[in-house]
Amino acid sequence: MDLKSILAIIVAFFTGKSDQEKAEVAKQIQDTLQEQLKPQPPKVVPQPPVTPEPKPEPPKAPTGQISGLTTNPNRLNSNKEAAKKGDKLMQKAINNVIKLGQDWLNQKVSYVTEKTKLIPGVKDSLHYFMSMAPYWHLIKGEWVRKDAQANGISEAIGDVTRLQKQLMPAVENLSKAYVATDDQNLKDKFAKRVIDICTSFFLDSKTGMMPSFIYANAVPGQVRVESAVEGRPFIIVANWLLFLQDSKFYTEAFRKGMQKWFADLAYWLEFSATGKKANEETVGNIASIYEAQLVAFNAFGGNMDYAAKRRAKAIARLFHDIAPDGGLPEEKKRVKAFMYHCKAIDAIYLCARIYNSLGQGIWYEERSGKMPLLEVIRYMLPYFMGKKRFNNSEKITYSYFVQPLRTALLVYEKYLTQQEKKDINTILEKNDPIRDGAPDLFDEPFLDWR
């Protein structure tokens, strides 16, 4: 029945009414019915509030204090005592440490904001560390990788040099000299220089670096997990800063600023888009460096529980890249396989030393009845002794390997055979400068060869 029929029936009830009255009533009824017959919007049913997906919490405020990440303060103290008691070689090493510290009092350290060249395609980002992936070349408009063929772009930018050859050695050598000397005037000079350098490099609003490696080891147009591992030198910086904590120049404001900076970098390493990718996809020496950075920066930043929580995953990642015979399959693929084996083992041992310093040792963890961190040393010994080679073109160098060998002699003394110990000592006698009183002897953890 349509609307007009309904109206006719209703109007019939008003017989006897004047036409005007009927028209008025009919109009009211029509308006009412039209309003009722309009399409009604769907009824809104109240919904419970949506709980957003939890996001990772930013780093908490520091809750503890550490005294070293890769260096044992007790070793430094005992070595100083040995020198005072007449140990000639240690005296020579300590004198070399102090002299090197004095040299660094006057050497220039530049900052990331001083670069005049940026990575291709990036503008107005002077406060970010920048470097190009060394083996990528622009060929006919496309970036192409050529292993072992450096492109030279990072050298032109200069941030790698600033970090590896200026900031890191400056902080390490000045801080080491601060510990070595008993001259308070020199101590103050060494400490003040370190604090001034780090304030400018990290904290100053005009010259400071952002706590991120988004533009590190870059290839234009790619998100690269390798970007997350350029901070290895910062592990050394953080380690040696801890030895200045008793200096009057190591103020509370400086401590809080540096802890926050490293906590922010640790957060970026794990939760940025690049960091998340690196957290799951890195392999080989890159994975080991990533793990070492992650635990070191969290610890320095005040997250004292992180090492215990991360330990199992770190072990799994380190072991994943070590074959049952101790070889490193990812590094065998490289043109410079020997060098990359050395770099990988150095990174593995660096990571293990940090975990050990934080009370979460991993040296003796086993897999199928063997200790993979010992097996990598055993695997490489024939290559160092010249009995095996990965190829016939690569020059053999030992710079990355001497410290892992020193450490292996200490950590695995009960597990190495007499022949293995003899081989390691033969290698170190020829290639390790600390045996002639080099500065690194001062913080050397293994002295039995003497």
UniProtKB/TrEMBL annotation:
Gene3D superfamilies: Chondroitin AC/alginate lyase. Residues 25-86 are annotated as: Disordered. The keyword Signal applies. Keywords: Lyase, Signal. Residues 123-389 form the Alginate lyase domain. Signal peptide: none annotated. It comes from Adhaeribacter swui. Residues 64-80 have a biased composition (Polar residues). GO terms for molecular function: lyase activity. This is Alginate lyase family protein. Residues 39-53 have a biased composition (Pro residues). The lineage of its organism: Bacteria, Pseudomonadati, Bacteroidota, Cytophagia, Cytophagales. Pfam families: Alginate_lyase. The keyword Transcription does not apply. GO terms for cellular component: periplasmic space.
